[in-house]
Amino acid sequence: MIKVNLDRVMLERKVSSKVLAEKIGITQANLSILKTGKARGIRFDTLEKICRTLHCQPGDILEYDEKTEYSEEV
Amino acid sequence: MNLFTKIVLKCLSIVTVFLQVVFAFAGLVLLFATVALLFVPNDVKNQLLQYLDLNTNVNITMVLVLSSLVAFLIIACLFIIMHALRKMIGNIYKQNFFVPQNLTYLKLILISITSITILQFISQVFFAKLHAYNVSNVFSNSASDLVGNILLLAIVYTLYVVFKYGISLQDDSNNVI
C-alpha cells in the first residue's frame, strides 16, 4: 500500500497542520485524513501545493510499502 | 447554477406546494364524504349510483365506500409524491445533488407511483365488473393510463439507479483530497 509520510516531512520542516492547511487551501480535518492515510486519493494540485509549501518531492511524502496490502475500508 | 435553472426550480417548488395543498384538501373532503356515506339515507346513495350509471343489484354502501377509499389512497400517494419532489427540488436548489436524502425521496416516489398503478388497475377491474365508466378522473379509465404510469415508473427507476451511482461517485470524490 501507499504510505503517507506527511507527518514526518512536516516535523522536519517545522510546519504546523494549521499553517499547512491554510497554505494549501484545505481544512485541517481533511489534512488530518491525509496524514493518517485514510484518504482514498490525493489530487495532483493538492500534492503540488504541499510540495511547494514544504519544499520537497512527492516521493518524500508518498512511499510504496510492499509488506502491507491496500484495504478498501477507509 | 444559472439564473434560469434557479427560476425553474423555484417555480416547480411553488407548483408542488400548491398541489400538496390541493391534494390535502381533496383527501380531507374524500375522507369526510366516505364517513358521511355511512350515515346518509339509501335514497341519496341511489342518486349517487344513478350518477355512476350502475345497476342497483350491488351493495350500494360497499361500492361507494370502497371507491372512496381507493380514491383517498391514490390522492394520499399523490400528496407523498409532491412532498418528496418538493424536498428533492429544495436539495437540488441548495446544490446538494448526490446526497442519500435524495435517494430516499426517489424511493418514496417509486413506491407511491407503484401503489397508484396497482390501485388504478384494481379500480379499473372493479369498475369494469360493475360496468361503470368515467367515474372520476382520479381513477384510470384506459389501458393507456396504466402504460403511462408504467413508463413513468421506468423513468423514475432509471433516475434512482443514476442517483445511486452518483452518490457512490460523490463519496469517492469526497475521499480524494
Distance, first to last CA of chain B: 24 Å
| Oligomeric state | heterodimer
Number of domains of chain B: 1
SSE pattern of chain A: EHHHHHE
Mean pLDDT of chain B: 86
The percent range for strand residues of chain B is: under 5%
**Main sheet makeup of chain A:** 2 strands, antiparallel
Q: Looking at the structure, what is the overall shape of chain A?
A: globular
Which chain pair has the greatest contact?
Answer: A-B, 12 and 4 residues
CATH topology of chain A: 434 Repressor (Amino-terminal Domain)
Mean pLDDT of chain A: 88
Q: Element order, helices and strands of chain B? A: HHHHH
Helix and strand composition category of chain B: mainly alpha
Number of helices of chain A: 5
Task: Describe, in short, the structure shown.
Chain A has 5 helices and 2 strands. Chain A has helices spanning 6-13, 17-24, 28-35, 44-54, 58-61; strands spanning 2-4, 62-64. The relative contact order of chain A is 0.26.
